[in-house]
Design the sequence.
């Protein structure tokens, strides 16, 4: 829970400075972007994505059916992360779970990105009572704790990984709206927007041609940042039992099932937990680097 | 930037380039910094006499030899920002470093005061500050951060560029000024306060008690700059570094600040290192000029020699391009040809014409003799002038623009703040003109612009000139009054009409870098009006864009570039091309050349004038720079605090200003001419 809060707070503060156009050459931008940290992060994230796309390449074990394998085996060359209480290979479950977790995270971020930036851009460029009303709605969203909000939404929508993703996405709307609104407000004050109106532009042509392209880099950087916290939130919901039903390999669920054996078989929770952590930290690292590059 | 391996003592010459990492606090003995200011040392020597004495004094206050500064970039290759810069500043004299943006002039100042950016290093040369009273001679390159603390503020004062952002807004003006006293002396708070009041009084701030209690935002820009000067001289430094101290100020305020600096150096014998991009200011005030370009000294020497007989090609170009210097250049370059002046050349050689106006004003009395402030007559006068000018512009056309009683008042303010600045110790003529309360906005402005001519709108910041520009371009609806452009009544347009109106009127912004969308290619920016009005097919638009670019002397191949890949001058050409691509009849230039370097500015002005002749365009040219307006405008309207104070043909207004405010504005233009012409004659004969 506290981790969720932290990640949220972090990305919120990251959202504060709007992208200020710095005129560095693209080569030096590339050089600042590829630090050892971002390279490691990209590699880790790349591996996870390949896991999600081709899980069969990485493991021969069945993630759902343990067969006659002994339960609660310690990590070994055969079973890297050991086996769980009914003899399933935990590494295999983590690999197969990647696709679900990543897909859910993408859906969540997509929902937040599209809805949030639409609200924010219109609020920021329109101003007036339209903007006020939209942003007050966003304030309401922001005032409800993210976990509580997503739990409520899952209960309303029904259980299941897609619903969880949508719920997490709705909690992310507020941040996207606030960032894109602040972007839109600064962009609307720019001379080039006035010049665009001056050359006969209408509200929608200015919004689509000038405001959106100029706001997009900062918003996309936030989106990458949000992927990490979405994975975390989805795992949290899975852990609490709101996600995929039991036999499905899903990261939160894997950790939740291993929880009962923490004293005797620590690897069931710790190793999948480390994977989740590595992925979250990697996306966060990349998101931060992208945001800096966007500025 | 480590300070550990630093050489000890001023004499040792460390091999590695170094700079102190931080500025900080230091302490000094209170006695040492007791002020001499307040005691009037000034004796009215003739100027030349004083200079001779200074030269005889031999040891310069500050001596910079072969200074080189390099910026390390991420690629590891250090790039030299300045190379082989030599400078001498004598006590009581002013040395101006003049250059365009990016020429390294601020880097020079930063190196002298030890405040370079963290990725910059002094790579070669020496910087020496001479002994002064009890203070020893110092090698400024070898100082540790701790030693620097005792030098900055105490021995070298610094006046920053922008008075708007250089005072701490959370502290009172008094506390801001007292800061270096607090850091460097052991004065008690009562003594400090007394000293601050003395200083504020010294720099010409009236009612110091009251001002010291005010916060920076309550003071005008000129007064804030005075407060900064007070802070800079609080410890009576031997050297003042003024980094573009007047660039953010209006021309009349600039004059007063420059007068104050002159007074300070005369009385206290302070040497001033003056950094500026404005050759006219430097030429008017400085004893020695150093012209830098791309980090190399192009030319240096006494101001008179350099202005009278510039040796470097670049200096000559700078002189030729600076609008306010053109009188000077005209006088120097063609004293003989001025007698065979022919009115028919006015379209092609305005510089000569203006120089003539300056000197032979009475001889020109034929043009627009019945000057009047009413617009109808002003319009007539300008038409008359156009007719007499003959060649370039179509004679007597119906006015394209007719503005009557335009009023847009944002606020009325009781006017005492700014006047306080006027009635200062400096010798500026007081009493601005407006009779009633000052307003923010504009009130009862009327003028006409005949087709094919240029109206200059001149005024200081806050005079309302941009408000008029915005109303003309259809960006705001005035509270009352009428604006007619062609057959449009701009003050009462429906949304649909407004869009059509934009095909008639285009606005060119001050800063081209911000007026072009950074994510669009410049070609797309130029094509945008065509897309908005659905003119032509896609291929057709590309042709028109190429044509428009050729018209503004840009290579059409640049169309695919992004704005950040182009220079400021090229960007302004793009902005002009965008304005012209839908063939408007009226173009409003809102300070369109103010953000550009002089050489670029002169090219853009040439372009604007050429386009007017080719396309028969009508311009409204808004500028704070009278020299620029004089160069491009046919008629001029002078604004002061929202009121129109004078309108007339440009020659008439500039040669024989009627209104005291106009006179004051004109007097404040830095004008090396007045002093230089005599000197030049004396030198050459």
Sequence:
């Amino acid at each position: 829970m506290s981790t969720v809060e932290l990640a949220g707070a972090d990305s919120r503060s990251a959202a504060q400075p709007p992208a200020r156009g710095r005129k560095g050459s693209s080569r030096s931008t590339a050089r600042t972007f590829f630090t050892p940290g971002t390279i490691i992060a990209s590699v880790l994230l790349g591996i996870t994505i390949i896991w999600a796309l081709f899980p069969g390449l990485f493991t021969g074990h069945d993630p759902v059916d343990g067969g006659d394998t002994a339960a609660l085996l310690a990590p070994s060359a055969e079973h890297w992360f050991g086996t769980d209480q009914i003899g399933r290979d935990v590494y295999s479950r983590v690999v197969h779970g990647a696709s679900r977790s990543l897909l859910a995270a993408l859906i969540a971020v997509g929902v937040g990105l599209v809805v949030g930036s639409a609200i924010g851009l219109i609020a920021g460029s329109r101003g007036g009572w339209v903007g006020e009303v939209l942003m007050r709605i966003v304030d309401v969203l922001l005032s409800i704790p993210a976990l509580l909000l997503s739990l409520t939404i899952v209960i309303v929508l029904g259980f299941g990984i897609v619903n969880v993703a949508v719920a997490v996405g709705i909690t992310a709307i507020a941040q996207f709206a606030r960032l894109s609104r602040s972007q839109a407000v600064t962009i609307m004050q720019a001379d080039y927007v006035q010049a665009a109106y001056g050359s006969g532009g209408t509200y929608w042509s200015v919004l689509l041609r000038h405001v959106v392209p100029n706001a997009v880099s900062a918003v996309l950087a936030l989106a990458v940042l949000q992927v990490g916290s979405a994975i975390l939130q989805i795992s949290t919901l899975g852990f609490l039992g709101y996600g995929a039903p039991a036999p499905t390999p899903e990261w939160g669920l894997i950790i939740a099932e291993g929880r009962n054996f923490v004293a005797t078989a620590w690897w069931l929770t710790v190793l999948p937990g480390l994977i989740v952590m590595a992925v979250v930290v990697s996306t966060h690292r990349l998101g931060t680097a992208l945001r800096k590059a966007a500025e | 930037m480590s300070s550990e391996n630093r050489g000890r003592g001023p004499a040792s010459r460390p091999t590695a380039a170094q700079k102190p990492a931080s500025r900080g606090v230091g302490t000094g003995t209170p006695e040492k910094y007791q002020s001499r200011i307040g005691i009037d040392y000034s004796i009215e020597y003739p100027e030349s006499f004083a200079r001779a004495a200074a030269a005889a004094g031999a040891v310069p206050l500050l001596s910079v030899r072969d200074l080189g500064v390099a910026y390390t970039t991420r690629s590891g290759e250090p790039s030299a920002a300045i190379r082989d810069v030599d400078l001498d500043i004598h006590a009581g004299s002013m040395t101006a470093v003049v250059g365009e943006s990016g020429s390294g002039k601020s880097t020079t100042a930063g190196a002298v005061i030890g405040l370079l950016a963290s990725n910059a290093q002094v790579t070669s040369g020496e910087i020496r500050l001479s002994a002064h009273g009890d203070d020893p001679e110092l090698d400024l390159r070898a100082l540790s951060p701790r030693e620097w603390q005792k030098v900055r503020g105490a021995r070298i004062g610094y006046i920053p560029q922008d008075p708007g952002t250089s005072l701490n807004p959370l502290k009172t003006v008094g506390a801001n000024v007292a800061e270096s006293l607090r850091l460097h002396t052991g004065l008690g708070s009562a003594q400090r306060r007394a000293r601050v009041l003395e200083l504020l009084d010294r720099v010409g701030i009236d009612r110091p008690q009251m001002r010291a209690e005010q916060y920076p935002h309550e003071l005008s820009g000129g007064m804030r700059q005075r407060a900064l000067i007070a802070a800079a001289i609080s410890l009576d430094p031997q050297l003042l570094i003024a980094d573009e101290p007047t660039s953010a100020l209006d021309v009349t305020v600039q004059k007063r600040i420059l007068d104050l600096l002159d007074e300070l150096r005369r009385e206290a014998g302070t040497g001033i290192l003056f950094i500026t991009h404005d050759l006219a200011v430097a030429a008017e005030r400085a004893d020695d000029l150093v012209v830098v370009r791309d980090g190399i000294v192009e030319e240096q020497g006494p101001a008179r020699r350099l202005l009278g007989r510039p040796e470097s090609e670049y200096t000559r170009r700078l002189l030729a391009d600076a609008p306010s210097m053109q009188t000077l250049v005209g006088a120097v370059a063609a004293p003989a040809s001025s007698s065979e002046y022919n009115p028919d050349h006015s379209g092609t050689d305005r510089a000569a014409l203006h120089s003539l106006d300056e000197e032979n004003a009475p001889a020109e009395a034929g043009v627009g003799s019945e000057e009047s402030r009413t617009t109808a007559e002003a319009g007539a006068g300008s038409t008359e002038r156009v007719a007499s000018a003959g060649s370039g512009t179509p004679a007597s056309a119906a006015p394209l623009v007719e503005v009557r009683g335009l009023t847009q008042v944002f606020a009325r303010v009781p006017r005492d703040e700014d006047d306080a600045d006027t009635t200062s110790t400096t010798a500026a003529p007081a009493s601005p003109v407006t009779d009633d309360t000052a307003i923010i906005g504009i009130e009862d402005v009327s003028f006409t612009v005949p087709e094919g001519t240029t109206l200059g709108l001149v005024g200081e910041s806050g005079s309302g000139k941009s408000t008029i520009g915005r109303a003309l371009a259809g960006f705001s609806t005035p509270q009352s009054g009428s604006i007619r452009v062609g057959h449009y009544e701009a003050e009462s347009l429906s949304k649909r009409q407004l869009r059509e109106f934009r095909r008639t009127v285009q606005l060119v912004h001050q800063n081209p870098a911000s007026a072009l969308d950074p994510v669009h290619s410049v070609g797309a920016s130029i094509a945008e009006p065509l897309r908005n009005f659905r003119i032509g097919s896609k291929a057709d638009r590309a042709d028109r864009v190429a044509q428009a670019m050729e018209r503004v002397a840009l290579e059409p191949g640049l169309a695919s570039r992004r704005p950040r890949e182009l220079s400021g001058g090229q960007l302004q050409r793009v902005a002009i091309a965008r304005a012209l691509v839908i063939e408007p009849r009226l173009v409003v230039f809102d300070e369109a050349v103010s953000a550009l370097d002089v050489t670029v500015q002169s090219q853009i002005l040439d372009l604007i004038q050429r386009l007017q002749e080719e396309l028969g365009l009508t311009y409204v040219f808004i500028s704070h720079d009278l020299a620029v307006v004089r160069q491009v405008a046919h008629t001029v309207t002078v604004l002061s605090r929202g009121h129109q104070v004078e309108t007339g043909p440009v020659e008439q207004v500039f040669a024989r200003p009627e209104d005291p405010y106009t006179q004051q504005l004109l007097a404040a233009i830095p004008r090396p001419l007045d002093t230089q012409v005599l000197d030049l004659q004396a030198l050459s004969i």
